[in-house]
Please model this.
Amino acid sequence: MEFLEGRIFIDPKLPGVTPESRKAIYRETARVLAALHSADVDAIGLGKYGRRDNYCKRQVERWTKQYIASTGEGKSPRNPKMLELSDWLRQNIPPEDASGASAGLVHGDFRIDNIVFHSTEDRVIGILDWELSTLGNQMSDVAYSCLAYIADHNLDGQELNKGFELTGIPEGVPPLAEYLAEYCSASGKPWPANKWKFYIALAMFRGASIYAGIHSRWMMGNASGGERARNAAGQANGLIDSAWAFIARKSVLPSHPPPVLTAHNYAIQISSKNKILEESGRFVPSKKVLELRKKLIKFMEDHIYPLENEFYKLAQSSSRWTVHPEEERLKALAKKEGLWNLWIPFDSAERAKKLIFDGSNSAVSNDTPDQLLGAGLSNLEYGYLCEIMGRSVWAPQVFNCGAPDTGNMEVLLRYGHKEQLLKWLVPLLEGKIRSGFAMTEPQVASSDATNIECSIRRQGDSYIINGRKWWTSGAMDPRCKVLILMGKTDFTAARHKQQSMILVDMQTPGVHIKRPLLVYGFDDAPHGHAEMSFENVCVPAKNILLGEGRGFEIAQGRLGPGRLHHCLRLIGAAERGMQLMVQRALSRRAFGKLIAEHGSFRSDVAKCRIELEQTRLLVLEAAEQLDRLGNKKAHGIIAMAKVAAPNMALKVLDTAIQVHGAAGVSSDTVLSHLWATARTLRLADGPDEVHLGSIAKLELQRAKL
Model:
């Protein structure tokens, strides 16, 4: 019931809106309806929101009774065609699972004027008018949302206005087939061609019943809307006639609809250098993402790759725990070019705007909210950019998109209270400080986080922390000012309720860095991974995140996007390996011919390309499911991606190292460092064995259904 600052479009023709925005608005409408229909009602506590069985049958009966009650002597005039339409609908009800197992959330009144769009962006921020929502057959929602194409059922005139099919589709508004394709692509549901007449007729039948009720109340003097209510009878009769006209059609759409209507694939056109390119496939980045990707690639070529050797020289010198001045310059340049904090999901950005930039805190940062809170991308959209950053180990932090900062900022964005956000999140978003994540411990098997022994004991208005941690990423960085630490607040609670997460200022007495840890000889200076001890570290009680016993809950919210970021960067690392491998093979000779001319190389490079493309599609699918279904429901495919990506990258990078010979295992190329990073990620954020166990568990559960 909160107030939303946004736009509502009353007229489906979208007057005063540019053609580009019209198309985006309709695509977003279809996507949001698909997202609503993809909700797991049992998982979100709506399993008993309504009866699941015989939805369409009950709808016909309900609106028939309402029409009869609203018409007749002293009420709105009764149209016999309406009762005939009721009989036709009863005879053509589509088969529905008697158990209601296939039923889902139904809005009941889903149309464009019940949707709130962002005040400046063509994306949905809210859906209104849930009075008719229940559980049932979701195709009724889809058909109802399509009525503007067939009949414009507003109350402005005495008669029903014609739909887009007769009046002409406004420029930019997608054809009905394309709108349906967008929905089917996003939801994974097929278009019910053989029952489409029923669903459209039911939508009109229901509308006619509602309008008859409005007119009846006007006749009795208790309807709001004045002249508009008076026109309702004409609108009702117009919908009845339109329903019969639609039923009489020989064809509603092609009897065998295009593949886009029954599969996940669809086609879009993008403009590039005044040339229209046809691109098809499910994962086609938007124009906005393509432009960001182009800028990012250019930034990498102009600034990151040329400075890699300089960064490595400092990282291997006696001053390696200092920050190269060029890094800070590049960060300022990246922010200026709009390539900053691209990882932030738009829902998290909206929460940050409300809590941080709410008017009273408008001067909290020298940067504007738009500068700090990214481009409002989905996980899938960010995926195309994250991959590019993964081509260099130095790139992510330049764009403020590096681990563990992204995961820590996501935790604060999702779970932090206002004071925590102002103190720690704002400087992290600005890139003025960095952070660390302290979970793994040297004395226990931390792949099972319930083994963690670090204690977080309440003492008055404070918590006292005691324990040892290692592989605390980022703690060696001189800019690291805060840690998110996971420990136990209650050793006697239920197994997954013992753990909590708390913010720890690095300057707190008792926080000690014991040593930097090396990964195959790399200490990743100036970032580093530290072994640390916490001896009677006293932090304010207000530093606890979300509350005691919520550590696992936070971890699961953090690890979904974070795991995917790792996978996406690994795709980029593998691409860098492919690039270097092929360049080497085309420039070096062995046994009288180029390495590229040897059959063994061609076989290896072909296999690498196959595995890389397979893995990229898996990771993009995981990102898309994370956007559409949420972290919990997508955890299976995220686990698959987390296993597949590092193993693929290791194979590709190892092949590239082999092609480079002795240079490959040296520090003269980036290959050995990329390989070491990929090998680490078979352990970080859960080892392969844990993810394989989760995947197998889901597979066995499916077999039992």
